[in-house]
Amino acid sequence: MNADKIRFPPSREVYLRSHAKLAALAMAGAMFVLWLMDDPNIWVGAIAGLGAIAVRGWYMLSEEMTAVWELDANALHGPAERHVPLARIARLRRIGSFVQIITDGGDKHLIKFQSDPNATIETIERARA
């Protein structure tokens, strides 16, 4: 690996797609709860679920898009001054569009909203070799 840092920025497209899926689940879940309560206006659940996730997505977008991880020859450096030495990584796992990093001490970190999480894992694994 060269001396340059490799960056793992979040993908805006993946962020929006993830929130669309989350909104669909929230809509269905809210409608189901209202149906269980025998509410005649279960359609309100769809609006509530969509609204809740849309507001959350809009509110969190700017923060999530700045959460960039960088890989150098010795470690991963993440947002909020996170630092994970490559030698301390016990496991890398894909969770949807996220890459979970588990250290040998049990610490867990997420590289979120990756357009190709498998490629992110492969890049980190190559750096560890």
Plain-language structure description:
This protein is α+β, with helices and mostly antiparallel strands. The chain folds into two domains: 7-64; 69-128, Roll (PH-domain like), CATH 2.30.29.30. 46% of the residues lie in helices and 24% in strands. The protein has helices at residues 12-36, 43-64, 117-128; strands at residues 6-8, 69-71, 75-78, 82-85, 89-95, 98-103, 108-111. The strands form two sheets. Strands 1-2-3-4 form a four-stranded antiparallel sheet, covered by helices on one side. Strands 5-6-7 form a three-stranded antiparallel sheet, with helices on one face. The protein is elongated, with a radius of gyration of 19 Å.
Helicity level:
40-55%
Number of domains: 2
CATH-defined architecture of the largest domain: Roll
Broad structural category:
alpha+beta
Give me the side-by-side strand order of the main sheet.
1-2-3-4
CATH hierarchy, class of the largest domain: Mainly Beta
- List how many beta strands DSSP finds: 7
How far apart lie the N and C ends?
10 Å
What's the rounded overall pLDDT mean?
96
Largest sheet: 4 strands, antiparallel
What is the general shape? elongated
